[in-house]
């Protein structure tokens, strides 16, 4: 039964250029949107997610229901389960893997450091091992992070800038991933693209991210804490709307060359790429709060405190010239518009005044994301 669903979900509807993609972390924020977008254009998609409880598992279940409506089957399992992976690669000839499963978040490393090593380091190796052992090696596109720039102060961040001063275990685990990608490309000829996402936000987003819990707390009349840098400088992020990130992911899959296998081909070695996917427009966190206040028509109760050394960096700012040139990446949504869509989703779907649909049986809901 299980295998039938996997095969059907992996079937390519779009000819002649359709692809068949294993999306890991498919019940996650980016994974759900990317899987849906692939499916909509007729690609074969199989999801994989372990539904861990890092944040609200019922939100992940609601995303799963959304995916199931669009015909994407989601396998419940861990990326470190080698047996499960080899079974999946035996069942389906995946042309691509979009590897998004990871332990996200910076501060959680102070609670559960091991989860970053297990999911982001060992988990990536497990995926690359499965891919290189597959009869037909898929191209890999995976989520690195803007956090690899760490304490770099040269802005905007370019792919060629130094990444040897991570500020958090999360950043270090993503940086380790980039080194590991180099090894699997070099030895096994895997085609690998790493995408450095910059603070992704939007409908179906992550409750552990500031824009999400600020919205929750402003609505509840609770005070929100805004951090400022040690020198009183403002904290800024290059907030990037989810649809723009998805466009970048799909463009990366579409421009990924085939893996060559060990030794490369006459045409040369297998492809190894890294791209910034950001918005090139950093916004101070105080401005984020002001936009939320306008959309929510409510005032925030603010508490401003000095930023602790918890792994957060003071600002992020992407140079996206390379992604523009090589991928045709073109972010189109500014923070004002993107947050409007988020707030609409939050109020009409996630937590309407009548009570969260998530706790209402039988209402798995539909996407309010245009
Ligand atoms: P998310 O937490 O919503 O999604 C990750 C998903 O992976 C979750 O559903 C989780 O259950 C699953 N997962 C985690 N460990 C797993 C494991 N061992 N086996 C199977 N499934 C596992 O996060 P997201 O915001 O959608 O992020 C997607 C990717 O992008 C992650 O790799 C993240 O590190 C990266 N990223 C995200 C952002 C952002 O702002 N959202 C920024 C930079 C990088």
From TrEMBL:
Highest taxon in the source lineage: Eukaryota
Domain NAD(P)-binding: 22-341
GO cellular component: Golgi cisterna membrane
Subcellular location, principal: Golgi
Membrane topology type: Multi-pass membrane protein
Enzyme class (EC, first level): isomerase
Single Gene Ontology MF annotation: UDP-glucuronate 4-epimerase activity
EC numbers for this chain: 5.1.3.6
Record field: catalytic activity: UDP-alpha-D-glucuronate = UDP-alpha-D-galacturonate
Subcellular location per the Swiss-Prot or TrEMBL entry: Golgi apparatus, Golgi stack membrane
Keywords: Isomerase, Membrane, NAD, Transmembrane, Transmembrane helix
Family under the similarity heading: Belongs to the NAD(P)-dependent epimerase/dehydratase family.
Name of the protein in its database record: UDP-glucuronate 4-epimerase
Organism of provenance: Dendrobium catenatum
Lineage: Eukaryota, Viridiplantae, Streptophyta, Embryophyta, Tracheophyta
Originating gene: GAE3
Range covered out of full length: 88 to 457 of 458
């Amino acid at each position: 039964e299980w295998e039938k669903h996997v095969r059907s979900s992996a079937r390519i509807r779009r000819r002649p250029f359709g692809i068949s993609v294993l999306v890991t972390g498919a019940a996650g924020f980016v994974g759900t949107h990317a899987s849906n977008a692939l499916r909509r254009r007729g690609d074969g998609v199989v999801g994989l997610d372990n539904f861990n409880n890092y944040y609200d598992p019922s939100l992940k279940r609601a995303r799963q229901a959304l995916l199931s409506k669009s015909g994407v089957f989601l396998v419940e399992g861990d990326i470190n389960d080698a047996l499960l992976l080899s079974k999946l690669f035996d069942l389906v000839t995946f042309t691509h893997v979009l590897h998004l499963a990871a332990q996200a978040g910076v501060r959680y490393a102070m609670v559960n450091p091991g989860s970053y090593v297990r999911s982001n380091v060992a988990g990536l190796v497990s995926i690359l091992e499965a891919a290189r052992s597959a009869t037909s090696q898929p191209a890999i596109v995976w989520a690195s992070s803007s956090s690899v720039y760490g304490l770099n102060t040269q802005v905007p961040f370019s792919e060629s800038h130094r990444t040897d001063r991570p500020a958090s275990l999360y950043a270090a685990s993503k940086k380790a991933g980039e080194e590991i990608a180099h090894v699997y490309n070099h030895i096994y000829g895997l085609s690998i693209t790493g995408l450095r996402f910059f603070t992704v936000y939007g409908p179906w987003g992550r409750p552990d991210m500031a824009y999400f819990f600020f919205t929750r707390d402003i609505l509840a009349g609770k005070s929100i804490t805004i951090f400022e840098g040690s020198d009183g400088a403002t904290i800024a992020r290059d907030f990037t709307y989810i649809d723009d990130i998805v466009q970048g992911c799909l463009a990366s899959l579409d421009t990924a060359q085939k893996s060559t296998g060990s030794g490369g081909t006459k045409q040369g070695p297998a492809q190894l790429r890294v791209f910034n996917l950001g918005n090139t427009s950093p916004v101070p966190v105080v401005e984020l709060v002001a936009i939320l206040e306008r959309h929510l028509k409510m005032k925030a109760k603010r508490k401003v405190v000095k930023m602790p050394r918890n792994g957060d960096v003071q600002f992020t700012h992407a140079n996206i010239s390379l992604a523009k040139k090589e991928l045709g990446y073109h972010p189109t949504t500014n923070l004002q518009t993107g947050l409007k869509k988020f707030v609409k989703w939050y109020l009409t779907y996630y937590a309407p005044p009548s009570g969260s649909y998530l706790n209402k049986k039988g209402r798995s809901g539909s996407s309010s994301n245009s």
